[in-house]
Amino acid sequence: MTAAVETIRDAPFTIGGRTFHSRLMVGTGKYRDNETMVRAIEASGAEIVTVAVRRVDLDRTREAGILYHLDPKKYFLLANTAGCHTAEDAVRYARLAREGGGFNEFIKLEVIGDQETLLGRSRRTGSRYSPTRTRTSSPRCGSRTRAARR
Amino acid sequence: MNDTIDVTVNGERRAVARGATLLELLRTLELDPRVVVVEHNRAIVRRPKLGDVTVAPGDAIELVHFVGGG
Question: Of A9, A102, A131, B24, whose CB neighbour count within 10 A is largest?
Fold first, then answer.
């Protein structure tokens, strides 16, 4: 029931020295529950699965992370910066994900523009970022409520 | 002598035990060090080092993890 569809096989393709056998990249957001997510991802046959790096909500520490449900050895986890609203925060969180998460060297860099559709801000995502610039205010990554109020 | 110090965790002021390490801070917050990435004063501290780094007054600590999304 949850077995991958064996009949569909893409020609292997290589990105950055890594070869994949499925061109389908799937996300992990907006599922009804984790069990449904795990079964859907398994059935999709996708190898690349995107996960979001977010600030831990200290008031809701019971919220379990995605790593309790997805095995980084089984899937190629592609960390993304969904939830970041500025280029600076996106780059900062991308580094945290890459160096701290330790899955792989891939990052899906994005800056969220619209909280409802989660469409990106392509200008900011593509903007030149100076690592010497610093922010003094707290980053808004993971603070969906604040963004939603704007 | 006060036995707690003030640090900033994810933008919020928090009192932690003087001499606490980052690993102890995670335990206090009931966070699993295996799934949390720790940034200490803008520097990433890798998991094996969390027990070696002691927090000091005014330190800024950022805790992130991986969740569904994207």
Answer: B24
